[in-house]
Specification:
With 471 residues, the protein is α+β, with helices and mostly antiparallel strands. Among the domains are: 72 residues, no CATH class; 185 residues, Helix Hairpins (Orthogonal Bundle), CATH 1.10.287. The protein contains 4 helices and 24 strands. It has a 6-stranded antiparallel β-barrel with strand order 2-13-17-15-14-18. Strands 3-12-8-5 form a 4-stranded antiparallel β-sheet. Strand 16 and strand 17 form a beta hairpin. The longest helix is centred in the first third of the chain and has 93 residues. The two termini are 43 Å apart.
Protein backbone atom coordinates (compact mmCIF):
# COMPACT_ATOMS: atom_id res chain seq x y z
CA UNK A 1 0.00 0.00 0.00
CA UNK A 2 2.81 2.41 0.96
CA UNK A 3 4.66 1.63 -2.25
CA UNK A 4 1.58 2.53 -4.25
CA UNK A 5 1.28 5.90 -2.53
CA UNK A 6 4.98 6.68 -3.11
CA UNK A 7 4.66 5.77 -6.75
CA UNK A 8 1.72 8.10 -7.27
CA UNK A 9 3.60 10.97 -5.53
CA UNK A 10 6.68 10.52 -7.72
CA UNK A 11 4.54 10.39 -10.81
CA UNK A 12 2.79 13.69 -9.82
CA UNK A 13 6.13 15.40 -9.08
CA UNK A 14 7.52 14.35 -12.45
CA UNK A 15 4.38 15.58 -14.19
CA UNK A 16 4.64 18.95 -12.42
CA UNK A 17 8.26 19.34 -13.57
CA UNK A 18 7.30 18.46 -17.12
CA UNK A 19 4.40 20.97 -17.09
CA UNK A 20 6.47 23.88 -15.67
CA UNK A 21 7.72 26.28 -18.42
CA UNK A 22 11.37 26.00 -19.33
CA UNK A 23 13.32 29.17 -18.32
CA UNK A 24 14.93 31.35 -20.96
CA UNK A 25 18.63 30.64 -21.17
CA UNK A 26 21.71 31.98 -22.91
CA UNK A 27 24.92 30.22 -23.90
CA UNK A 28 27.95 32.22 -22.74
CA UNK A 29 29.99 33.23 -25.77
CA UNK A 30 32.80 35.47 -26.88
CA UNK A 31 31.74 38.49 -28.87
CA UNK A 32 32.49 42.11 -29.66
CA UNK A 33 30.82 44.46 -27.17
CA UNK A 34 30.18 47.95 -28.45
CA UNK A 35 29.77 50.39 -25.53
CA UNK A 36 27.66 53.42 -26.32
CA UNK A 37 26.16 56.16 -24.17
CA UNK A 38 22.75 57.60 -24.98
CA UNK A 39 21.82 61.05 -23.65
CA UNK A 40 19.05 63.59 -24.17
CA UNK A 41 20.01 67.11 -25.17
CA UNK A 42 19.08 70.29 -26.97
CA UNK A 43 20.42 71.97 -30.08
CA UNK A 44 22.23 75.21 -29.29
CA UNK A 45 24.19 77.71 -31.33
CA UNK A 46 27.87 76.85 -31.29
CA UNK A 47 28.39 80.62 -31.38
CA UNK A 48 25.89 83.44 -31.00
CA UNK A 49 25.97 87.22 -30.92
CA UNK A 50 23.43 89.10 -28.85
CA UNK A 51 23.00 92.42 -30.60
CA UNK A 52 23.42 95.27 -28.11
CA UNK A 53 21.05 98.23 -28.41
CA UNK A 54 22.81 100.98 -26.48
CA UNK A 55 22.43 104.72 -26.23
CA UNK A 56 24.86 106.86 -24.29
CA UNK A 57 22.25 109.22 -22.89
CA UNK A 58 18.83 108.83 -24.51
CA UNK A 59 16.42 106.50 -22.66
CA UNK A 60 13.04 107.46 -24.08
CA UNK A 61 10.72 105.65 -26.48
CA UNK A 62 11.99 104.54 -29.89
CA UNK A 63 9.91 104.02 -33.01
CA UNK A 64 10.96 101.25 -35.38
CA UNK A 65 11.23 102.48 -38.95
CA UNK A 66 12.47 99.15 -40.37
CA UNK A 67 13.69 95.83 -39.01
CA UNK A 68 15.08 92.58 -40.44
CA UNK A 69 12.52 89.71 -40.34
CA UNK A 70 12.75 86.98 -37.73
CA UNK A 71 14.84 84.07 -39.12
CA UNK A 72 16.35 86.07 -41.98
CA UNK A 73 19.93 85.49 -43.18
CA UNK A 74 22.13 88.55 -42.81
CA UNK A 75 25.68 89.56 -43.63
CA UNK A 76 28.02 91.37 -41.31
CA UNK A 77 27.25 95.12 -41.15
CA UNK A 78 23.83 94.68 -42.78
CA UNK A 79 21.23 96.97 -41.12
CA UNK A 80 19.16 95.08 -38.54
CA UNK A 81 17.03 97.87 -37.07
CA UNK A 82 16.46 101.48 -38.06
CA UNK A 83 14.96 103.69 -35.36
CA UNK A 84 13.65 107.20 -35.84
CA UNK A 85 14.13 110.11 -33.42
CA UNK A 86 11.41 110.41 -30.81
CA UNK A 87 10.99 113.12 -28.17
CA UNK A 88 14.44 114.52 -28.71
CA UNK A 89 13.31 118.02 -27.86
CA UNK A 90 11.85 116.76 -24.58
CA UNK A 91 15.09 114.97 -23.76
CA UNK A 92 17.13 118.06 -24.54
CA UNK A 93 14.87 120.28 -22.44
CA UNK A 94 15.19 117.82 -19.56
CA UNK A 95 18.96 117.92 -19.88
CA UNK A 96 18.90 121.72 -19.78
CA UNK A 97 16.77 121.63 -16.61
CA UNK A 98 19.17 119.19 -14.97
CA UNK A 99 22.08 121.44 -15.84
CA UNK A 100 20.28 124.41 -14.20
CA UNK A 101 19.53 122.33 -11.10
CA UNK A 102 23.15 121.26 -10.83
CA UNK A 103 24.25 124.91 -11.08
CA UNK A 104 21.93 125.81 -8.19
CA UNK A 105 23.27 122.89 -6.17
CA UNK A 106 26.81 124.06 -6.79
CA UNK A 107 25.90 127.59 -5.59
CA UNK A 108 24.36 126.15 -2.43
CA UNK A 109 27.45 124.04 -1.72
CA UNK A 110 29.72 127.06 -2.11
CA UNK A 111 27.56 129.05 0.35
CA UNK A 112 27.51 126.17 2.84
CA UNK A 113 31.29 126.04 2.63
CA UNK A 114 31.53 129.75 3.56
CA UNK A 115 29.00 129.55 6.40
CA UNK A 116 30.55 126.36 7.70
CA UNK A 117 33.89 128.06 8.25
CA UNK A 118 32.22 130.81 10.32
CA UNK A 119 30.22 128.26 12.34
CA UNK A 120 33.32 126.19 13.05
CA UNK A 121 35.16 129.24 14.42
CA UNK A 122 32.24 130.12 16.74
CA UNK A 123 31.92 126.54 17.94
CA UNK A 124 35.64 126.45 18.70
CA UNK A 125 35.37 129.57 20.89
CA UNK A 126 32.42 128.14 22.84
CA UNK A 127 34.09 124.78 23.41
CA UNK A 128 37.33 126.41 24.52
CA UNK A 129 35.34 128.48 27.07
CA UNK A 130 33.51 125.38 28.36
CA UNK A 131 36.76 123.43 28.73
CA UNK A 132 38.43 126.29 30.57
CA UNK A 133 35.44 126.71 32.91
CA UNK A 134 35.31 122.98 33.73
CA UNK A 135 39.03 122.95 34.45
CA UNK A 136 38.66 125.98 36.74
CA UNK A 137 35.80 124.34 38.71
CA UNK A 138 37.96 121.26 39.26
CA UNK A 139 40.94 123.36 40.36
CA UNK A 140 38.84 125.40 42.80
CA UNK A 141 37.23 122.29 44.28
CA UNK A 142 40.59 120.64 44.91
CA UNK A 143 42.27 123.80 46.19
CA UNK A 144 39.55 125.28 48.41
CA UNK A 145 36.18 123.54 48.38
CA UNK A 146 37.49 120.26 49.82
CA UNK A 147 39.04 122.06 52.82
CA UNK A 148 35.81 124.01 53.41
CA UNK A 149 33.67 120.89 53.40
CA UNK A 150 36.05 119.08 55.73
CA UNK A 151 35.95 122.02 58.14
CA UNK A 152 32.14 122.04 58.01
CA UNK A 153 31.79 118.36 58.91
CA UNK A 154 34.46 118.62 61.61
CA UNK A 155 32.71 121.60 63.16
CA UNK A 156 29.41 119.71 63.07
CA UNK A 157 30.98 116.81 64.94
CA UNK A 158 32.58 119.21 67.42
CA UNK A 159 29.26 120.93 68.12
CA UNK A 160 27.55 117.64 68.91
CA UNK A 161 30.49 116.54 71.04
CA UNK A 162 30.29 119.77 73.02
CA UNK A 163 26.55 119.47 73.41
CA UNK A 164 26.80 115.89 74.57
CA UNK A 165 29.48 116.86 77.11
CA UNK A 166 27.39 119.76 78.39
CA UNK A 167 24.29 117.61 78.76
CA UNK A 168 26.29 114.97 80.57
CA UNK A 169 27.59 117.57 83.04
CA UNK A 170 24.10 118.95 83.56
CA UNK A 171 22.72 115.45 84.20
CA UNK A 172 25.41 114.74 86.76
CA UNK A 173 24.70 118.03 88.56
CA UNK A 174 20.96 117.32 88.60
CA UNK A 175 21.53 113.86 90.01
CA UNK A 176 23.78 115.28 92.77
CA UNK A 177 21.34 118.06 93.53
CA UNK A 178 18.28 115.87 93.89
CA UNK A 179 20.22 113.27 95.80
CA UNK A 180 21.55 115.74 98.37
CA UNK A 181 18.11 117.18 98.94
CA UNK A 182 16.71 113.68 99.21
CA UNK A 183 13.76 114.58 97.13
CA UNK A 184 11.48 111.83 96.05
CA UNK A 185 8.84 113.86 94.39
CA UNK A 186 7.52 113.11 90.93
CA UNK A 187 9.05 116.36 89.72
CA UNK A 188 12.58 115.12 90.32
CA UNK A 189 11.96 111.96 88.38
CA UNK A 190 10.55 113.89 85.46
CA UNK A 191 13.49 116.29 85.32
CA UNK A 192 16.08 113.50 85.50
CA UNK A 193 14.27 111.38 82.90
CA UNK A 194 14.18 114.30 80.50
CA UNK A 195 17.87 115.06 80.99
CA UNK A 196 18.87 111.45 80.43
CA UNK A 197 16.69 111.25 77.29
CA UNK A 198 18.16 114.46 75.87
CA UNK A 199 21.66 113.13 76.51
CA UNK A 200 20.93 109.87 74.66
CA UNK A 201 19.49 111.70 71.70
CA UNK A 202 22.48 114.01 71.58
CA UNK A 203 24.81 111.00 71.60
CA UNK A 204 22.83 109.57 68.68
CA UNK A 205 23.14 112.85 66.79
CA UNK A 206 26.84 112.87 67.60
CA UNK A 207 27.26 109.38 66.15
CA UNK A 208 25.30 110.41 63.08
CA UNK A 209 27.49 113.48 62.62
CA UNK A 210 30.60 111.35 62.93
CA UNK A 211 29.28 108.86 60.34
CA UNK A 212 28.38 111.67 57.97
CA UNK A 213 31.81 113.17 58.45
CA UNK A 214 33.43 109.84 57.58
CA UNK A 215 31.19 109.42 54.53
CA UNK A 216 31.97 112.95 53.37
CA UNK A 217 35.69 112.32 53.67
CA UNK A 218 35.69 108.78 52.24
CA UNK A 219 33.02 109.01 49.52
CA UNK A 220 31.30 112.32 48.84
CA UNK A 221 34.40 114.47 48.44
CA UNK A 222 36.20 111.89 46.17
CA UNK A 223 33.00 111.32 44.16
CA UNK A 224 32.44 115.04 43.63
CA UNK A 225 36.08 115.47 42.69
CA UNK A 226 35.77 112.58 40.21
CA UNK A 227 32.59 114.10 38.74
CA UNK A 228 34.29 117.45 38.21
CA UNK A 229 37.35 115.71 36.78
CA UNK A 230 35.10 113.76 34.35
CA UNK A 231 33.31 116.97 33.30
CA UNK A 232 36.66 118.59 32.65
CA UNK A 233 37.79 115.61 30.61
CA UNK A 234 34.52 115.58 28.64
CA UNK A 235 34.83 119.29 27.91
CA UNK A 236 38.41 118.78 26.81
CA UNK A 237 37.31 115.81 24.68
CA UNK A 238 34.58 117.83 22.98
CA UNK A 239 37.11 120.54 22.26
CA UNK A 240 39.60 118.05 20.85
CA UNK A 241 36.85 116.32 18.86
CA UNK A 242 35.85 119.63 17.29
CA UNK A 243 39.45 120.50 16.50
CA UNK A 244 39.83 117.15 14.73
CA UNK A 245 36.41 116.93 13.06
CA UNK A 246 36.09 120.51 11.89
CA UNK A 247 38.81 120.10 9.21
CA UNK A 248 37.16 116.82 8.11
CA UNK A 249 33.75 118.46 7.84
CA UNK A 250 35.33 121.28 5.91
CA UNK A 251 36.80 118.74 3.50
CA UNK A 252 33.36 117.11 3.17
CA UNK A 253 31.83 120.46 2.29
CA UNK A 254 34.63 121.05 -0.17
CA UNK A 255 34.01 117.55 -1.62
CA UNK A 256 30.29 118.30 -1.93
CA UNK A 257 31.14 121.44 -3.83
CA UNK A 258 33.51 119.46 -6.04
CA UNK A 259 30.80 116.87 -6.71
CA UNK A 260 28.40 119.63 -7.61
CA UNK A 261 30.94 120.95 -10.11
CA UNK A 262 31.36 117.47 -11.57
CA UNK A 263 27.58 117.08 -11.82
CA UNK A 264 27.34 120.32 -13.74
CA UNK A 265 30.07 119.14 -16.10
CA UNK A 266 28.28 115.79 -16.47
CA UNK A 267 25.08 117.43 -17.57
CA UNK A 268 27.05 119.29 -20.16
CA UNK A 269 28.41 115.96 -21.39
CA UNK A 270 24.89 114.48 -21.44
CA UNK A 271 23.77 117.11 -23.88
CA UNK A 272 26.65 116.19 -26.17
CA UNK A 273 25.87 112.45 -25.84
CA UNK A 274 22.22 113.01 -26.70
CA UNK A 275 23.26 114.54 -29.95
CA UNK A 276 25.74 111.70 -30.54
CA UNK A 277 23.05 109.04 -29.88
CA UNK A 278 21.40 109.95 -33.15
CA UNK A 279 24.05 107.87 -34.96
CA UNK A 280 23.05 104.82 -32.89
CA UNK A 281 19.58 104.82 -34.44
CA UNK A 282 20.89 102.42 -37.12
CA UNK A 283 21.92 99.03 -35.67
CA UNK A 284 24.21 96.86 -37.90
CA UNK A 285 24.70 93.09 -37.74
CA UNK A 286 27.88 92.07 -35.86
CA UNK A 287 28.43 88.92 -37.98
CA UNK A 288 27.15 86.71 -40.80
CA UNK A 289 24.33 84.40 -39.75
CA UNK A 290 20.62 84.09 -39.07
CA UNK A 291 18.77 86.80 -37.15
CA UNK A 292 16.39 85.56 -34.46
CA UNK A 293 14.19 87.66 -32.21
CA UNK A 294 14.72 86.98 -28.48
CA UNK A 295 17.67 85.39 -26.70
CA UNK A 296 18.78 81.80 -26.22
CA UNK A 297 19.28 80.68 -22.60
CA UNK A 298 19.58 77.25 -20.97
CA UNK A 299 18.61 75.32 -24.08
CA UNK A 300 15.55 77.38 -25.06
CA UNK A 301 14.58 80.61 -26.75
CA UNK A 302 13.35 83.24 -24.29
CA UNK A 303 10.82 86.05 -24.92
CA UNK A 304 10.52 85.18 -28.62
CA UNK A 305 6.75 85.66 -28.91
CA UNK A 306 6.75 88.88 -26.92
CA UNK A 307 9.69 90.23 -28.90
CA UNK A 308 8.11 89.30 -32.26
CA UNK A 309 4.96 91.11 -31.20
CA UNK A 310 6.93 94.24 -30.34
CA UNK A 311 9.50 94.33 -33.14
CA UNK A 312 7.42 95.54 -36.04
CA UNK A 313 7.75 98.70 -38.14
CA UNK A 314 5.90 101.58 -36.54
CA UNK A 315 5.95 100.12 -33.01
CA UNK A 316 7.29 102.16 -30.13
CA UNK A 317 9.72 100.28 -27.91
CA UNK A 318 12.40 100.78 -25.26
CA UNK A 319 15.99 99.92 -26.15
CA UNK A 320 15.97 97.08 -23.56
CA UNK A 321 12.99 95.46 -25.33
CA UNK A 322 14.87 95.02 -28.61
CA UNK A 323 16.42 91.54 -28.37
CA UNK A 324 18.03 90.17 -31.54
CA UNK A 325 20.45 87.23 -31.64
CA UNK A 326 22.67 86.47 -34.64
CA UNK A 327 23.46 82.75 -34.99
CA UNK A 328 26.23 81.73 -37.41
CA UNK A 329 25.80 78.43 -39.26
CA UNK A 330 27.25 75.77 -36.94
CA UNK A 331 25.23 74.25 -34.10
CA UNK A 332 25.98 71.94 -31.20
CA UNK A 333 24.07 69.73 -28.77
CA UNK A 334 24.18 70.58 -25.07
CA UNK A 335 23.46 67.62 -22.81
CA UNK A 336 23.90 66.54 -19.18
CA UNK A 337 26.57 63.88 -18.64
CA UNK A 338 26.02 61.76 -15.49
CA UNK A 339 28.95 62.00 -13.11
CA UNK A 340 29.37 58.21 -13.21
CA UNK A 341 30.14 58.45 -16.96
CA UNK A 342 32.58 61.37 -16.84
CA UNK A 343 35.54 59.02 -17.15
CA UNK A 344 34.11 57.54 -20.38
CA UNK A 345 34.04 60.80 -22.34
CA UNK A 346 36.89 62.72 -23.90
CA UNK A 347 37.16 65.19 -26.74
CA UNK A 348 36.80 63.78 -30.24
CA UNK A 349 34.53 60.76 -29.64
CA UNK A 350 32.14 60.16 -32.56
CA UNK A 351 28.46 60.73 -31.86
CA UNK A 352 25.20 60.34 -33.74
CA UNK A 353 22.45 62.89 -33.13
CA UNK A 354 18.79 62.00 -33.70
CA UNK A 355 16.18 64.76 -33.61
CA UNK A 356 12.78 64.30 -32.00
CA UNK A 357 11.22 66.57 -34.61
CA UNK A 358 12.82 64.73 -37.57
CA UNK A 359 13.19 61.02 -36.71
CA UNK A 360 14.60 60.22 -40.15
CA UNK A 361 17.47 62.68 -39.80
CA UNK A 362 20.84 61.51 -38.46
CA UNK A 363 23.63 64.03 -37.87
CA UNK A 364 27.23 63.17 -37.07
CA UNK A 365 29.09 64.99 -34.34
CA UNK A 366 32.15 65.02 -32.09
CA UNK A 367 32.31 65.33 -28.31
CA UNK A 368 34.15 68.00 -26.38
CA UNK A 369 35.70 67.45 -22.97
CA UNK A 370 33.09 67.54 -20.17
CA UNK A 371 32.84 70.92 -18.46
CA UNK A 372 33.98 69.78 -15.02
CA UNK A 373 34.72 73.29 -13.73
CA UNK A 374 31.61 75.43 -13.50
CA UNK A 375 29.50 72.98 -15.51
CA UNK A 376 27.93 70.93 -12.70
CA UNK A 377 24.16 70.59 -12.71
CA UNK A 378 23.10 68.38 -9.81
CA UNK A 379 24.60 64.93 -10.40
CA UNK A 380 25.69 65.71 -13.97
CA UNK A 381 28.05 67.95 -15.95
CA UNK A 382 27.55 69.95 -19.13
CA UNK A 383 28.72 68.17 -22.28
CA UNK A 384 28.84 69.77 -25.72
CA UNK A 385 28.72 67.80 -28.99
CA UNK A 386 29.70 69.79 -32.08
CA UNK A 387 27.67 68.92 -35.18
CA UNK A 388 29.27 68.36 -38.57
CA UNK A 389 26.27 69.48 -40.62
CA UNK A 390 24.51 72.75 -41.40
CA UNK A 391 21.31 71.07 -42.59
CA UNK A 392 18.58 73.70 -42.95
CA UNK A 393 16.19 71.84 -40.65
CA UNK A 394 18.60 72.20 -37.76
CA UNK A 395 17.61 75.17 -35.60
CA UNK A 396 18.49 76.02 -32.00
CA UNK A 397 16.04 74.73 -29.41
CA UNK A 398 15.19 71.35 -30.99
CA UNK A 399 15.35 68.35 -28.65
CA UNK A 400 17.75 65.59 -29.60
CA UNK A 401 18.86 62.09 -28.64
CA UNK A 402 22.63 61.61 -28.74
CA UNK A 403 24.39 58.27 -29.07
CA UNK A 404 28.10 58.47 -28.26
CA UNK A 405 30.47 55.69 -29.26
CA UNK A 406 32.56 55.10 -26.13
CA UNK A 407 34.50 51.85 -26.65
CA UNK A 408 34.59 48.56 -28.60
CA UNK A 409 35.64 45.49 -26.59
CA UNK A 410 36.65 42.58 -28.83
CA UNK A 411 36.65 38.87 -28.00
CA UNK A 412 35.14 39.17 -24.51
CA UNK A 413 32.70 36.87 -22.69
CA UNK A 414 29.20 38.36 -22.74
CA UNK A 415 25.78 37.54 -21.31
CA UNK A 416 22.49 39.43 -21.46
CA UNK A 417 22.04 42.10 -18.82
CA UNK A 418 18.94 40.22 -17.58
CA UNK A 419 21.11 37.27 -16.50
CA UNK A 420 22.90 39.43 -13.89
CA UNK A 421 21.52 39.84 -10.38
CA UNK A 422 22.87 41.79 -7.42
CA UNK A 423 22.39 39.71 -4.28
CA UNK A 424 23.76 40.50 -0.81
CA UNK A 425 26.35 42.83 -2.27
CA UNK A 426 27.52 40.28 -4.83
CA UNK A 427 26.99 39.94 -8.58
CA UNK A 428 25.60 36.47 -9.35
CA UNK A 429 24.15 34.43 -12.23
CA UNK A 430 22.26 31.15 -12.31
CA UNK A 431 24.18 28.47 -14.28
CA UNK A 432 22.44 25.36 -15.59
CA UNK A 433 24.36 22.23 -14.66
CA UNK A 434 22.77 18.79 -14.97
CA UNK A 435 19.34 20.28 -15.34
CA UNK A 436 19.69 22.27 -12.13
CA UNK A 437 20.20 26.04 -11.74
CA UNK A 438 23.23 26.81 -9.55
CA UNK A 439 23.94 30.33 -8.29
CA UNK A 440 27.48 31.47 -9.04
CA UNK A 441 29.28 34.74 -8.27
CA UNK A 442 30.83 36.55 -11.25
CA UNK A 443 32.83 39.70 -11.92
CA UNK A 444 31.19 41.93 -14.52
CA UNK A 445 32.77 44.57 -16.73
CA UNK A 446 31.34 47.11 -19.18
CA UNK A 447 27.77 47.07 -20.48
CA UNK A 448 26.01 48.58 -23.44
CA UNK A 449 22.58 48.42 -21.80
CA UNK A 450 21.74 45.03 -23.36
CA UNK A 451 24.80 42.84 -22.98
CA UNK A 452 27.39 42.86 -20.22
CA UNK A 453 31.03 41.77 -20.16
CA UNK A 454 31.95 38.90 -17.78
CA UNK A 455 35.51 39.15 -16.55
CA UNK A 456 35.54 36.04 -14.36
CA UNK A 457 33.21 33.36 -12.97
CA UNK A 458 31.93 31.91 -16.29
CA UNK A 459 33.36 29.97 -19.18
CA UNK A 460 32.48 30.03 -22.85
CA UNK A 461 29.74 27.52 -23.64
CA UNK A 462 28.13 27.50 -20.18
CA UNK A 463 24.39 28.11 -20.10
CA UNK A 464 22.88 30.79 -17.82
CA UNK A 465 19.29 31.65 -16.97
CA UNK A 466 18.02 34.96 -18.31
CA UNK A 467 15.49 36.61 -15.97
CA UNK A 468 13.31 34.83 -13.48
CA UNK A 469 15.98 34.88 -10.77
CA UNK A 470 14.83 36.75 -7.68
CA UNK A 471 17.40 38.96 -6.05
Amino acid sequence: MKCAVLGVSAWMLLAARQDSPKPETFVVKRDTLTVELELDGTLEPAERHVVPIRFDAYSGDLRIASIVPHGARVRKADPLVQFVSAKWNVALAAAEAERAASAAALERCVEELRLGEIGDALALQRLEHDASLAEERLRYYKAEEIALRLRDVEMSVARWEDRAADQKDELEQLEKMYKSEELTSATAEIVLKRARRDLERTKTQLETARLRAERTKAHEIPMEEERLRLEARQAAHRLEEHRRSAPVKKKEREAAAARARVAAEKHEETLAKLRKDEAAMLVPSPADGTAYYGRFENGAWVDVEETRRLLRPGERVQASQVQITIVPGMLCVRTALPEANVGDIMAGLPATVMLVAFPDLRVAGKTNDPELVGGRKGDAFDLRIDLESTESRLVPGLRARVKIFVQELKDVLVVPLGAITEKSGKTVVKVLEGGEGLVREVAKGRSNGKMVEIKSGLKEGEEVVVGGMKP
